[in-house]
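Colleagues,

Please find the record for the two-part complex below.
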Amino acid sequence: GESVGLHLPTLSVQEGDNSIINCAYSNSASDYFIWYKQESGKGPQFIIDIRSNMDKRQGQRVTVLLNKTVKHLSLQIAATQPGDSAVYFCAELPQGSGGYQKVTFGTGTKLQVIP
Amino acid sequence: SAVISQKPSRDICQRGTSLTIQCQVDSQVTMMFWYRQQPGQSLTLIATANQGSEATYESGFVIDKFPISRPNLTFSTLTVSNMSPEDSSIYLCSVSGQLNYGYTFGSGTRLTVV
């Protein structure tokens, strides 16, 4: 299908290597952060999240790091596989009293895994 | 998490016409949203679909261009009205249950206006 990553920054990684995708967020009041993966022709898929009271959270093969001092978020993928090829978006939500808060998406990074 | 069915998955439309996109969720959800993703870009929130009341639009989006319905807690529609080639985008439905911050997305509708 048609790629959504035509104009996005691209990270090329050899299969088996670790990938690090970075994101600078804009709102110092953001309280909650999510990484999404979007494969070609599909909607974004939730990968992992982290709250602002944490600086690291691990999932299966993925780790998210949060540096609130410099408003920086990163997604680390261990032992990158061809199936990891996709566009990755970070998203931020501001603090709130509960219920819905507006999600703001970052610009996205296209990950290309080289077999 | 909720399962979202979005229709149509893609369409090619003539300029000046309108297209209605449907979003059906397999469970009741508190919040439903509509996003636009232009080619090679990130997602932009169009509006929040409110059940039983008018949708809440983001800056740059208006009801006359993007009328939204939400008759119940499992269904919403987005209409792209009087289309022009600039409306060619992927339109995505997203939902969130109360206190569920893992927002779920449909597979999107790929719209091409010619």
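Chain B touches chain A through 29 residues (CB under 8 Å).

Comments are welcome before we finalize the supplementary table.
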